[in-house]
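Recap from last week: sequence in, structure out.
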Amino acid sequence: FVPLLGVDAQQSRGAPRPLSRGTEILTSWDAEQRLYVKGDVGIEPEALAMLESWLGKNALNWTVLLLEDARGETYRNRDGRNYSGAKAVEYALGQGLQNQGEFAKQQDKRTGQANGAILAILLKERTFFYSGSETQNRRGLGQRNWRGDLDRPAFRAMSNGRRLIDAVKGTVEEVNSRLTRRLQAEQKEREREMREAQQRIDQAGRVVGELEGEIDTLEKEVAAFKLAHPKATGDLTEPRLPLLRDGLKAARAALEGNAPAEALKLARPVGEFVDAQRRSLANYPSASAEFAALNEEIGKIIPGREGWGSDRLELAREELAK
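Predicted C-alpha cells:
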C-alpha cells in the first residue's frame, strides 16, 4: 500500500456494487461488474455509475474497489496468518481474489495469458493497492512496478484536488496504454524474427538449389571427360554422385523442418567436394599438356632418351585423374 491524500465528488450516473466490507469481494465478485464500493467515498451515485460504465467500456479486465476505510476488515491467508485493516484488504485482493478461479480465468486475447487487474483505494487510510496478472507482470506492469511508477497518475489526481475518479481512470489508462505499446513492440519483434528466419530459410534453399544444379553439371562434365579419356580411372570418373545427391536430400529435409543452419551444414561438404571435382576436371587437359611438354624437354636435355620419363609422367596423369 502507498499513502494518498484524499477524495472529492463528481457527478454522473451508474451502478457500482456496494459492500459492507472490502473482503466481501471474494464472494461478491462478478465478471460483469467492475466497480465495488464500501461506505461513503464522497462521490455522488450518478458519478459512480458513470465510472462503472466507463470501466465497462475501457477496462473489462479491471476490478476497482473504493473503500471509505478499512474498519472491520479481516482476512485469513492460505498459510493460516490472520490480517486486519488495510493489510486484510491487500492480502484478500492480491492473494485471494487474484488467484480465485473465475477471476483468474480472465484472459488477454492478444497474449492468451491471464490479465485480471485490481485497483483499490482506501480513503481514510490514504492508501492504494494495485495488482496485475501474467500479462502485466511479464511486461513490467505488475505490482512491483506500482510504487513510484504506475502509481503516479493516481497520486497526482489525489494530491491535486482529491480527484478520486480521475485517479481510477488515470491508473487504468496508464497501465493499459503502456501494455498496448509493449504488446505492439513484441508483435513487431516477432514479425522481424519471422522475416529473418524466412530469409535464412530462403538463403539456405538457394544454396541447396544451386548445388543440385552443380551436381547435374558435374555429371555431364564427368560423362564428357570419360569420353575424352576412356583409360582414366578414379574419383574424376566416378565422383559418387548418388552420395552427393543423398547429402542434398538430407539438407532439403532440414529445410522442411525449418532448420536452415543444419541444412547449410549438410550442404557445405557437398559443395566443397563438387567444387574440387570440377576444378580437377577443368585442370586435367592443361596438366596433360604440361606433362607432354616436360617429356619433350627431357628428350632435348638427354639426347636419345626421348620418352625416358613417359612411364612416370603417365603415372602422374593417372594420379591426377584419381
